[in-house]
C-alpha cells in the first residue's frame, strides 16, 4: 500500500483531481454545522473511508490551519487537495468546497433583495436571528475550552474583551494579544517561577460619523483584509464586518449584518460565504464575486506557503504562543460582537425564549443547528402570520 501522505504519480493526477472535485463538491453542497463539523466530515472521508491521509498527517494539517489566518475548514480542504495533487489539487479542492456555498448564498441574497421587505421573509428572519445568537454562543463556549487554558490566557481574554467593548480596532486587539503572549512565554522561559502580569496596550479607534461612499474596490479590499487576518473561529468574521461595514463605512445596518449571518448559517459549506451575501447586497453580482474572492484568496496563498513548512510551524514555541494569544483575542471579539448582535435580535419574549431553548438544545443535547434554524424560521413565520 502506498504511503497516504505521498503525492500521486503524474499518471494518476487526473484521477486524483476528479476524486477531489467530486468529494469537495459534495461536501460544499451538503456540509452543514460549521467548521468543526466540516473538519469531522473530512476526517471521515479522507482518513477513514479513502485512506488518503494518515491520522497523524491529518492532525498536522489541523495544527497548521490553527497557526495561519483564514477559515479552518476551507484551509483543510485546500491542504488535502495540495497533498493529493499539488498546486492544481489545491485549487480544485478549495474551489469545489467554496463555490457551491457561494452560489447558494448568492441565490438567497437575490431572494433577500427581491423579497426581503415582504412580511413572510421578515417573519422567518425574525425567528432565525435569535437562533443564530445561540449558535454563536455555542461556538464561544466551545472555543473557551481551547482559548482559556491558563490563568494568563484568562486575564488576557478579559483585557481584550474590555478593549473590544471600548471600541479598540479588532486588528490591534488580535496582534497585541498575540505579541503579549509571545513576550510572556519568553519571559517565563528565562525567569523560572517569576510571575508576570500584562495589560493590553491599545489605541482608540475613531469611528466615522458619516457614511463612506461605496466602491467595489473598497469592498474587495475590506474582505481581502478580513481573509488575511482572520484567526480563530469563522464567527470572528462578525466582529470584522461589524467594525468595517457597520461602524466605519456605514454600508450595512446592524439588522442587515444579522440577516447576513442568518443566511450564512442556513447554507452549507464555509461560514465565510456570508461575504457573498454581503457583497451581493452592496454591489450586486460583481460585489458578490469580489467579496467572495477577497475573503477566500488569502487562504489559498497561506496554505500554498505554509504547507511545506508545516512540521516547523507545528513545533515552534513562538508560533504556539502567538496562536494562544490570538485565540484569546478572537474569543474576546466574539463575546463583544455577540452582545451587540444579541441586543438587535432579542426584542421580545418570543425571541428571548428562542435563544434560551436553542442554547439548551445545542449545549445540552448537541442538536444539529440546521434543525434549530428551521424551527426558528417556522416560529417566526407563525408569529408574523398571527400578528
Secondary-structure topology with pairs:
Elements: H1 13-30, H2 35-49, H3 55-67, H4 72-115, H5 119-147, H6 151-165, H7 170-190, H8 216-229, H9 237-248, H10 254-265, H11 274-306, H12 310-315, H13 317-345, H14 349-363, H15 369-385
Written description of the protein model:
Helices cover 76% and strands 0% of the residues. The chain is mostly helical and 387 residues long. The chain has one domain. α3 crosses α4 (72-115), α4 packs antiparallel against α11 (274-306) and α6 runs antiparallel to α7 (170-190).
Major β-sheet profile: none
Approximate strand percentage = under 5%
Count of individual beta strands: 0
Q: What structural category arises from helix and sheet content?
A: mainly alpha
Count of structural domains:
1
Low-confidence stretches: 1-5, 192-209
Shape: globular
Mean pLDDT: 82
Q: Give the H and E element order.
A: HHHHHHHHHHHHHHH
Query: What is the number of helices?
Result: 15
Specify Rg, calculated over alpha carbons.
Answer: 21 Å
Helix content: over 70%
- What is the first-to-last residue Cα distance? 65 Å
Amino acid at each position: 500500500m502506498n504511503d497516504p501522505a505521498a503525492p500521486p504519480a503524474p499518471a494518476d493526477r487526473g484521477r486524483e483531481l476528479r476524486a477531489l472535485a467530486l468529494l469537495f463538491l459534495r461536501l460544499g453542497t451538503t456540509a452543514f454545522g460549521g467548521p468543526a463539523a466540516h473538519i469531522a466530515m473530512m476526517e471521515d472521508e479522507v482518513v477513514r473511508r479513502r485512506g488518503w491521509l494518515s491520522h497523524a498527517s491529518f492532525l498536522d494539517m489541523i495544527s497548521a490551519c490553527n497557526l495561519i489566518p483564514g477559515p479552518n475548514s476551507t484551509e483543510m480542504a485546500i491542504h488535502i487537495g495540495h497533498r493529493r495533487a499539488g498546486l492544481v489539487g489545491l485549487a480544485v479542492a478549495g474551489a469545489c468546497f467554496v463555490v457551491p456555498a457561494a452560489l447558494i448564498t448568492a441565490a438567497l441574497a437575490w431572494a433577500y433583495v427581491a423579497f426581503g421587505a415582504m412580511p413572510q421573509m421578515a417573519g422567518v428572519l425574525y425567528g432565525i436571528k435569535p437562533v443564530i445568537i445561540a449558535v454563536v454562543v455555542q461556538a464561544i463556549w466551545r472555543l473557551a475550552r481551547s482559548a482559556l487554558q491558563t490563568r494568563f490566557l484568562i486575564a488576557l481574554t478579559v483585557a481584550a474583551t474590555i478593549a473590544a467593548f471600548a471600541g479598540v480596532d479588532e486588528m490591534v486587539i488580535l496582534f497585541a494579544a498575540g505579541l503579549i503572549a509571545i513576550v510572556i512565554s519568553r519571559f517565563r522561559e528565562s525567569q523560572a517561577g517569576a510571575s508576570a502580569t500584562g495589560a493590553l496596550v491599545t489605541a482608540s479607534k475613531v469611528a466615522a460619523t458619516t457614511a463612506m461612499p461605496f466602491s467595489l474596490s473598497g469592498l474587495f479590499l475590506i474582505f481581502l483584509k478580513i481573509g488575511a487576518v482572520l484567526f480563530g473561529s469563522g464567527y470572528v468574521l462578525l466582529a470584522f464586518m461589524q467594525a468595517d461595514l457597520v461602524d466605519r463605512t456605514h454600508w450595512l445596518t446592524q439588522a442587515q449584518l444579522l440577516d447576513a449571518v442568518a443566511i450564512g448559517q442556513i447554507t452549507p459549506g464555509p461560514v465565510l460565504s456570508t461575504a457573498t451575501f454581503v457583497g451581493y447586497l452592496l454591489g450586486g453580482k460583481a460585489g458578490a464575486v469580489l467579496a467572495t474572492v477577497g475573503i477566500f484568496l488569502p487562504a489559498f496563498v497561506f496554505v500554498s506557503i505554509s504547507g511545506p513548512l508545516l512540521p516547523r510551524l507545528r513545533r515552534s514555541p513562538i508560533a504556539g504562543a502567538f496562536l494562544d494569544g490570538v485565540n484569546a483575542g478572537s474569543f474576546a471579539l466574539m463575546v463583544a460582537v455577540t452582545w451587540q448582535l444579541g441586543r438587535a435580535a432579542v426584542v421580545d419574549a418570543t425571541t428571548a425564549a428562542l435563544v434560551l431553548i436553542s442554547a439548551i438544545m445545542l449545549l445540552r443535547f448537541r442538536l444539529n443547528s440546521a434543525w434549530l434554524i428551521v424551527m426558528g424560521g417556522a416560529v417566526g413565520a407563525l408569529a408574523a402570520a398571527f400578528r
